[in-house]
Design a protein that fits this description.
By secondary structure, this protein is mostly beta strands. Helices cover 10% and strands 57% of the residues.
């Protein structure tokens, strides 16, 4: 994950988030990913959402993988009114982020959560599933010569993937 145009100030928080994901099907005959919604949040609190983005639907057979390249945007308060699909970042949180960045030598912790709705196809069965993968403690170090840009300290991260199974009725 790479962050650019990161600014914290009286107008709010603004940032562009560039993230790459590899999604693998390691153990089911086939998976159809109907929707995947990604949320970046501050520290370990999904309620402190900073930006959201959704992926297009796709299908993976067993052993296949898909690489996704997603761009998130966090907008200053005035711009948010033109794109209310993005979460509103409260002033209190903006101030906390600014103080933490100064206090932590230019590093901040973020988290990411995904909401996945998919259909699993086995050899003799079909199941609707809801998955909520998440990854906390995504440490971003801002570059000393470019304080508005930062990189993930440990870029090769794995998500935990809790799954809720929902049997599909056939009749």
């Amino acid at each position: 994950m790479y962050i650019s145009n990161f600014t914290v100030g009286t107008k709010g928080l603004a940032a562009t988030w560039d993230a790459k994901f590899t999604i693998k099907n390691i153990n089911v005959s086939s998976i159809y990913f109907r929707t995947i919604d990604f949320t970046i949040f501050y520290k370990q609190n999904p309620e402190d959402a900073l930006s959201v983005v959704s992926s297009y639907p796709f299908y993976l057979d067993e052993g296949e993988f898909m690489k996704l390249h997603l761009k998130f945007k966090t907008m200053e308060t005035a711009e948010w009114e033109n794109d209310q699909d993005q979460p509103f970042v409260e002033n209190k949180l903006v101030e906390e982020i600014g103080k933490d960045k100064d206090k932590n030598n230019g590093s901040l912790n973020f988290g990411m959560q995904m909401k996945v709705k998919a259909i699993y196809y086995g050899e003799t069965w079909v199941s609707d599933v809801v998955m909520s993968p998440y990854c906390e403690d995504l440490m971003v170090q801002f570059l000393p010569n470019k304080e508005s840009s930062g990189r993930l300290v440990n870029p090769n991260r794995n998500f935990s993937v809790p799954i809720q199974w929902k049997p599909l009725p056939f009749f």
